Amino acid sequence: MPDLPVMTDEERNIRFEALAREYGTDLYRYGLWLCHNDALAKDLVQETYLRAWKALHTLKEQAAVKGWLITILRREFARTFERKVPKFTDLDSVVIEETRDLKPEEQVERKMLREGILRLPPRYREPLLLQVVMGYSCEEIAQQLGLSKSAVMTQLFRAREKLKIMLQKDGISGNIHELF
Amino acid sequence: MNFSDFKQWLGAEPYAREPEVLKARNSDPAFEEAAREAEAFEHKLESAMRIEAPEGLLADILALTETEVSTKPTVKARGPWVMALAATVFMAVGAASVLLWHQQHFSSVEDYVHQHMSHDGGRVLASAGDITGVTMAQVNQVLDPFSATVDADLLARIQFIKTCPTPDGDGAHFVISTPDGPVTVIFMPETATKGVAQFDVDGQRAHVIPLKKGSIAIIGSNDQQVEAVTPLLEAGIQPQRADT
Known about the structure:
The structure holds two protein chains of two kinds. Chain A is mainly alpha-helical. Chain A has helices at about 10-35, 40-55, 65-80, 105-120, 120-130, 140-145, 150-175. Chain A has two domains: about 10-80, RNA polymerase sigma factor, region 2, helix turn helix motif (Rna Polymerase Sigma Factor, Chain: A, Orthogonal Bundle); about 100-170, Arc Repressor Mutant, subunit A (Orthogonal Bundle). In chain A, helix 1 runs antiparallel to helix 2 (about 40-55), helix 1 crosses helix 3 (about 65-80) and helix 6 (about 140-145) crosses helix 7 (about 150-175). The radius of gyration of chain A is 18 Å and the shape is globular. Chain B is of the alpha+beta class. Chain B is about 45% helix and about 20% strand. Chain B has nine helices and eight strands. In chain B, the strands form two sheets. Chain B has a six-stranded antiparallel sheet with strand order 2-3-4-7-6-5, sandwiched between helices. In chain B, strands 1-8 form a two-stranded antiparallel ribbon. At the A-B interface, helix 1, helix 2, helix 4 and helix 7 of A face helix 1, helix 3, helix 4 and helix 5 of B.
């Protein structure tokens, strides 16, 4: 991948806007699932882009942009929670739900699935977010998280298994909490 | 590839298209059925995780560049729309922080000031540098919930104001200009303190004073006379007339 030339201010603005348009929504979703909190997710995205803007000139490879932004957001998230862990918040308060085409049981299932995702341990949730929300391959997730590909595949498999079991079990007992 | 390996692979990559996976899928109806089930579950998962971004997210991100530019000391004064935009962005960021902060508990006012300054004190102070003033309407928008307002002398000194969490509910985070440079002021309308307190905050000085209702923390560098701002604040932050 060729190095990018030195940017003028105008080029920097154009490039930044392209980054915002291409990744802003996905980063918000990723941040929201990571931190469970709409306000904090917006804050994380803002902080990510603020840092990205300041360091845009240091980014050499276009192909690395997405990983670079994710790394900034993850670091900012980790820094935010060094001392404080937020309480679990209800996603229903921030989700603009498109339920018109869903049957009642499908709506319940989607809600349960969301609760299950939020309750997944981070080691399972984060690879899943990178794959489903950010569109990463297992190799890319491994690189982002500093894990082996086989470890990532195991975590992804277990994440999905937990969610499937939760959906099946909840249909019987109605208690998802004991699974996590 | 046996059925167990195949299901493990699907669990990790439901849309896997590697030749060995495709070959296994086409080798047996049970494999084909498992693949269809995995894709159906994945569709549900994707739908559950596809949350709409809030309106204005892109505009807020793009406005960050304007704010950054506006903080450069070499840049000449910008149009009022840029200042308004910058103020709006920082109000939005501040509001975004409020939810998280509301969930925190502080052992003391000193602990709270430490946490608050660590959270966004430096950033707000730096970014407020070239926002050369706010309107009374902007101030009242922040202070109305506390039934408070400011007088004209203090208004003239306020470079920036936003809602912020305090140990006992919301309050206000100001940046005000002084002869020694801008200082941070945190108004805690429901937090009573006994007398004046002073302490260090990561290399800065904090000066906390009680008001008739609530209290105020003034935070500045060691070479700033933060105490000198006290009379301006004591006289300047006032209850709204309807409540007096």
